[in-house]
Amino acid sequence: MPHPETANPRGNNWPGAANVLGSEPSAYLRQHAGNPVFWRPFGDEAFAFAAARDVPVFLSIGYAACHWCHVMAHESFEDQETADYLNAHFVPVKVDREERPDVDSVYMTATQAISGEGGWPMSVFLTPEGLAFHAGTYFPPVPLPGRPSFRNVLEAVHEAWVERREAVEQNARGLATNLANAQLSSAVRLDGPPEVVDAQLLSDAVRVLARSEDPDAGGFGSAPKFPPSAVLEFLIRHAAALSETAEDAQDMAGRALAGMARSALCDQLDGGFARYSVTADWSVPHFEKMLYDNAQLLRVYAHWVRLGGNEVFPAEEAADVASGCADWMLASLGLPGGGLASSLDADTVVDGVHHEGAAYLWTPESMREVLGPDDAGAVARMMNVGAQGTVSELGSPLHPGRPLSASESRLWQRVRPALLAGRDLRNQPARDEKVVAGWNGLAIAGLAEAGAVLDRPDLVAAAGEVAAYLENVHWNAEDGLLVRVSHDSKARGIGGLLEDYAFCAEGLFSLYSVTGTKRWYRLAEQLIRAAETRFVDDGHLADSAGESAQVFNAQGQRAALDPFDNATPSGAAGFAGVLLTYSAYSGSHAHRLMAGNILGLLPPLATRAPRVAGWLLATAQAALAGPVEAAVAGSDSSLRQELHSALLKSASPGMVVAVQMDDAGSPAGEGEVPLLIHRTSAPDGSPQVYLCRDMVCGRPVGTVADVQSMLARMASGAS
Q1: Is pTM beyond 0.85 here?
Q2: Rounded to whole angstroms, how far apart are CA atoms 516 and 514?
Q3: Distance (Å, rounded) from C-alpha 453 to C-alpha 112?
Q4: Backbone φ/ψ region at 271: left (φ over 0), alpha (ψ -120 to 50), beta
Q5: pLDDT above 50 (res 292)
C-alpha cells in the first residue's frame, strides 16, 4: 500500500521534503534548484527515501544546454500544482547526463524499449530498486496529438503503482532481463584470439555509408542531421589508404565537411559548431555548442588539411575552419587553470524568457543597424537572412549554404568584425563550466594535432595547459583513479568511465607525438594500465566500474558495454584505439591483442550500421596500415624539426610519432619511450627517421623527401 503521507498532495511534511539541488556543482542541477519540485540528486539516499515512502522514483535526465529541457522545466517543473502532485506521489530525481553517462545510457536504452523514442529531457519512472517500468521524453503541460500531458502521465503511473503493483514490478524485471540479454551480443573478451582486420570489410562499409549519404548537402541521413565526426575520421583515414573505395571515401568526407562549414551549423562569425541541424541542409541549427563536438570536428578538419583536401573542399578553406573552431573553443570554453568548459546553452534569456538561438539570429533590419544600408542588403542576401525568420520572429542564423565568390569573401571579411561586435552586445547564452575529463582529452588531441598541421604553436601550448589541468585536478596517481568531472578546479563525483580513460590517453599520446614530452606519454601509459584494472573483469570489458547499484539492477545485474558511437566514440572503440597506439609505441604484443579483441565487435556492425561504428572502423583502418611507427633520432636542429613536422603532417592512418627530445631536467635516455630505444643519429651526427611496423624498421632516412617516399612505398605495400 502507498505510504500514508502520500495521501495529502499539499502536505509534503515527510522528513527531508525539500529541493536539495542548490549545493550541487552541476550547472544543470542548479538550474532546477528553485523549482517547487523536491528534487534530489541520483544516489542511494534518493532510492532509500523512495523505498521508505513506498513510492516510485521519477527520474528526469537532461543537460544544461538542452532547449527542450528548459521548455519542460518552465511548463511543468516550475508549476506549483504539478510539483505538488510529483512531490506527493514520487521521489523526484534529477540527473545531469553529462556527469552521469552511465545512468543516462541504461535508462535511455530502457526508454527506447518502452516508448520507441529517445532524447532529452528523458522522463523515466523507476522502482525503488532502480528498475524502469514506464518512460518517455518531453511531455507537454496539455495533451497534444499522440502525446499525453505530463499530468496525465503522472496520474496514470500513480494509479498503476497503487492498483497493479505486481504487474508493474514484473514488467520492470522483464525489461531488465531483456537489457541484460542484449548486452551478451556486445560482450568483449580481452583474452581470446584477436580479430584479423579485413580490408574488404572496410571498403564494404564505405559502400554502405554511400547509400545513406546526402550528396547535395553532405552528411548522412535526413533531418535532424548531426555532425558525423567519427565516421569522417574513418573516411579520411580510408582515403589515405590505397583501395578501390579510397576516392569515394574522400569525396563523401569532402562533401560533408564542406556542407557543415558553409552552413549555419558553423558559426560564421565566431567559429565553432552547433550540436546538430533540424534541417537536412544544415540551415537551422539546434544552437547549443558542445565541447565534444568541436573537439572532434577540430581534429577532423585538421586531418582533412593533412590529407590535402579536394576540389569540393580545398585544404585552405578547411584550415580556416579549423583555426576558427580552435580559437572559439579556447576563447569561449577556456577556464582559469587550463580546463575547458562543457558547453554553451542553446537558449539566450531575454527579459526573463528563454529564446532558442536568440544571440545568433539576424533580420535585415538588425543588419542595417550594424552595417548601414550600403552593405546590409548584400550581406543579408549572401547569408540567406530574409524578412521571414527561419527560426523564429527573432530572425535567421547566418547560412551561406555555398562557397563564397572572391568578391563576396572580401565583403565578408570587411563586415564580419562589425557584425561580431554588434552580436557581442546582446545577451549571451549561459556556459556550463563543469570540466569533463574525456571531452577535455578529445580537445587535447584536436588542439595538439591542429597546432602541428596548421603551424600554430599556440594551440599546442593550449593543449599542454589542458593536459596539465587533467593531471593536477582529475588524476589521482596514488589510487590510479581518474575523476570524471571537476568544478572550480576541484574534482568531484564518480570515477571516470572507460571513455574518460580512453579519450584522455588518446589526447596525451597526440600531445606527446607533437611535443616529444615524455611526461605525457607516461601519463597516457598510466591511464591505460589503470583502465585495465578498473574495467576488465575476468577477461570481460565494461563501460563502467559499477558506480551505482541502481544502474546495475536496471541492466539486469550484468556489466554493460555499449559498442555504438553516439555524440562521441564508444568507450570500447576509444579504448581499442589507444591500445593500438600504445602497442605501436611500446611494442606490447599483449595490448595489440587486446585491441584486436575489441575490433571483434566490428564485423556485424561494419556493413549493417557503419554510422555508429565510425571509430572502430577508423581504428581498424589504422591497424590495417600497421600503424606506421616513426622514430626521429638525433639532436635538436632545424633538420630534425623539418623531419618531425613532415611526419606530423602525414596522412598515414593512425601513425605514431616519437622524437628524441629530452625532458628538461632528465638525463638523456632516461625512461625512454620503447620506440626510440637503440635509434641513433646518422654517423655524421645528423638526425634521421626510422619507419617501422611492429618494431621492425627499414633503413633510416635523413631527408624529408626520403621520408615521404618511404611512407608512400609502405602505403602501397612495398618494402
Answers
A1: yes
A2: 6
A3: 42
A4: left
A5: yes
